[in-house]
# Entry
Amino acid sequence: MTDNTPTVSGSEVSAASRSALARFLDSDLLHSFLSSKITVLAAITTLGLMLAALFAPLVAPFNPFDLAQISILDARIPPIGMEWSDPRYLLGTDDQGRDLLSGILYGMRISLAVGFLSVAFAAVLGISLGLISGYVGGRTDAIIMRIAEVQLTFPAILLALLIDGIASGIFGNIDRETWAIWILTFSIGLSFWVQYARTVRGSTLVEKNKEYVQAARVIGIPAWIIMIRHVLPNVLGPVLVIATINLALAIITEATLSFLGVGVPSTQPSLGTLIRIGNDFLFSGEWWIAIFPGLALAILVLAVNLLGDWLRDALNPKLR
Amino acid sequence: MRLKIASAALAMVLAAGTQANAETLKFAFQGTYNQLDPYSLNETFSLSMHGNVYETLVRRSADLKIEPALATSWEVIEPTRWRFHLRKGVKFHNGNDFNADDVIFSADRVRAEGSDLTQVLSAEVKVEKVDDYTVDFILPGVNPILHSEWENWPIMDKEWTEANDAVKVTSASDTNPNYASLHANGTGPFKIASHEPGVKTTYTVNDSWWDEKQHNLTGAEFTPIGSDATRVAALLSGELDMAYPIPVQDIKRVDNNAGTSALTGPELRTIFLGFDQRRDELTYSNIKGKNPFKDVRVRKAFYQAIDVDAIKAKIMRGLSEPSALLISPFLFANSGDFSRYPYDPEAAKALLAEAGYADGFEVSMDCPNDRYVNDEAICQATAAFLARVGIKINLNAQPKAKYFAKVLASGGFDTSFYMLGWTPGSFDSYNILKNLNNCRDDKGTASPFNLGGYCNPKVDELTKLVLSENDEEKRNALISEAYTIINNDVSHIPLHQQGLAWGVSDKVTVTQRADNKFLLKYVNFK
Amino acid sequence: MFGFISRRIAMALVVMFVVALISFLLFRFVGDPVNQMVGVETTPEQREALRQRLGLNDPVLTQFFRYIWGAVQFDFGNSYQFKQPVADLIGRRLPATLELSFASAIFALLLGIPMGVYTGLNRDSWLSKVFLSVSLVGISLPTFFIGILFIFLFSVTLQWLPSFGRGEVVQIAPFWDTGFLTASGLKAIILPAITLGLYQMTLIMRLIRAEMLEVMRTDHIKFARARGLPNRSVYYVHALKNTMVPVITITGLQLGSIIAFAIITETVFQWPGMGILFLQAVQNVDIPIMAAYLLLTAFIFVVINLIVDLLYVVIDPRLRTERGRA
# Structure
């Protein structure tokens, strides 16, 4: 099946759905509904949280990964303002006596690291495959797009769970502290590449038959160099939108996996791990252990989602 | 005696009077009930579930004393020959009679390949039928605690098992379950009505039970609920009549909630840490070419670096008893003579420096995260305590299935530093010495749960003496001697006996046994 | 039309074949099955005999076809943990997961479509703003956290709804027990279904809203209005109909992720479905269950995809002739 015999194949159906998905988010959602002030606020929040996470070692009062700094005797101290609170611990401590504020900052670092790394992995993989698929066409295209289709069978969570299970099956007892982040990055990233590939492929197909490419071919310049030069700028917008939405999704996926117990270990907690730990204390009145990391996660994801929405609108000329 | 019968009769009348209120008990546990084959798995929960359906020659009362069950009485007719008189008129659920053939059959089966309960009866013991209701056990040597673990040895029906082609035990590693692992046929107070592993198991009452009924249930329904929060929530909202374990942090809430209360008590299980002392180089450490744990100073330094009282206060919320021994004080009369090494990080640092590790070292720690009360949290706290004396712990906390597969004999004792909990099935120190402290080979034959391979021939010698000593006082003295050596050697770091915490609806009364067995025969709706 | 359908079916078969291959490789090469079955004391000879008996020494291709042949007959081997045929285990849990997925999809559609239409038509009303804000927050809160909050609120604090399990189930067929026929079963499904369906509902709502906004701008709606057709008929017959194509696509595609998200929901609510089974299998490296689950979800997804494609043709007649849209 080649690209010049278009049928309503699964890939195109999904492509159509993507564009439909894009279309509904392309609406003037943010202009009509949320004033642009909110976008600004979202941008500031995202940036602030990212900087705070990046500079966590400078900002955070404690290093929660340094076990020598943790004292179990400080376990479960409530946040400032409540009875029994301790001025050293603004948001209280968790069950191990870890300062929650520091835990959240460092946890966000892991969440964001996994998020960015997996999105980067997915984008590089997806863009490369999309270019190859669109440019080479024919059988290669068909194979890549079929793989994409199989890939779609596995939502991120399922894929990540499977990869985790396979990894511990193959490597026996892996050292989680070292490998968890990479397994997470790989499995989350692997489940996101299809969107990039389809976007880039579509754009490549359009460019491929344009005259300048043909001309380049005639004068002997490797056409793919030109392709990359012309296609990439064209798809930058959509790729950025996909990446932003994916970032939010990746953060949630990481948190979910850590909550299910296959993410990062509890000695190096991410936001999801913190919520999993805190979940055990929700009923006993020590709500802050789960709620603060939960809020941090929700605010981060919400801000990124808002930015993503806004990007969609801003980059879609149809709406202006 | 007459009084007892009268009160029993009264109890029966009362029970009959409340029959109208009697209901189906809904209860939940954190783990799943997988196989019904009673010899498949030596695990307290499965054994307690089997105990509702199957019965044993002798059983334990609510306060864990040995009492007659399918055997009415027994006597030691020669030092190495025990005679058991069987109860007459007992029927299995399928109507078959219980007799000596069933005992002999069960004795063979429980020691056959695939059985996880081989320790209840030594392979060298011969079992002889005297008549239909008398059985002799001929021992290779004197053993005063022959029947101490028999509560875990359910008697199966020979005819039923053979007719259903289930003589071979479905072992823990078998993939083809036989009839007996999906169906049950015991003599006990309850029958299995349905069994879906991992989903639900239902019981109905055995109306023709030989013993007098102490419960007023019409049936019971078991659901495994792995998530702590969900299990507690289900109890609080009244969907369950009983749930266990209750996480220590939720005990207060369960107590404060109208309609439920928490039942807590000391458990017999001791939680401890162990070191690999057998390998010449630790598998998971940055120290190469030697094994720091072979040095008693290092082991003692680890011991003194850990503050068990802080663990008790902050992680166990008071529901644990720091322990100097690997056995609960309830099970050993002389435990008062022993005390823990004090918590002293400075002394620990000094010991490490003396041993040549002034800058500490790195080692991985294996820990289950769904087996013991707050197991992972305790391991994390341990890592934090050790960090302060310069030891870097890489914590590897895993679900129990993976954890056990790694650290036990079947995984080649693949660990350098680990956490384990142990309840002696016989409620006796011999079990501790034999399983945890005798020298072992690479396969672990002589001392299968001595994961670290601690070895002191003097302890082995004493263990043998303990087994054949009939005089209680002399026996305890021998045990004390062994424990003193073990403590001086710091073979393990005993942490504490964890507490039991059950959540019970105010509608029912239950009996909590210190071995954490929840038995339906004690349950009553008010 | 016929060519289109047969092409789609052929492609579905290719996808299934690839998934089966992955599943087989998983089953066969991840975690030596023999090691999982025997203890450490088993001698090499016994192991070899077992390998022979299990056919693990045959050519890989033979094994693969045997695996596929088994899978076609629902024979996926035995679970390492439960010592039972995987097909039985999954079969017993399938109804729970399917009922949960079904209930959550119904919830998502029944609420998502009207909310989408409303917010599409009344762009600036305060209710629309509430719907949209809530939907954005709903997308940003992880499913497990929502589930926990629901239990905390509705089961523990208010004690309105059960927090775990399926309630009472009724056996309506040898392989199907349903919770839809009892009061406790219906009550039990509410919280998990809402938790699971919330994300999909949000998606559908936002999708319909965007489609409505777009469709309302198109010429034929303007014509319809100009022709004096009543608003109601314009909105619901002409406009909504035109939004249905993307909605069906998205809903269909989302069914796949509903099954995946069911893993989380089932864990939080202890819903005795396939998701929990799968999670336990991952945690315990129970490869036969993982492999079978993989095959099954892929199968369900492919079938749904196929149905979506066919519905597509039915709803949008243009596709029958145009054979595609880029």
User: Anything to note?
Assistant: The two ends of chain B are 27 Å apart (CA to CA). Chain B has a mean pLDDT of 89.
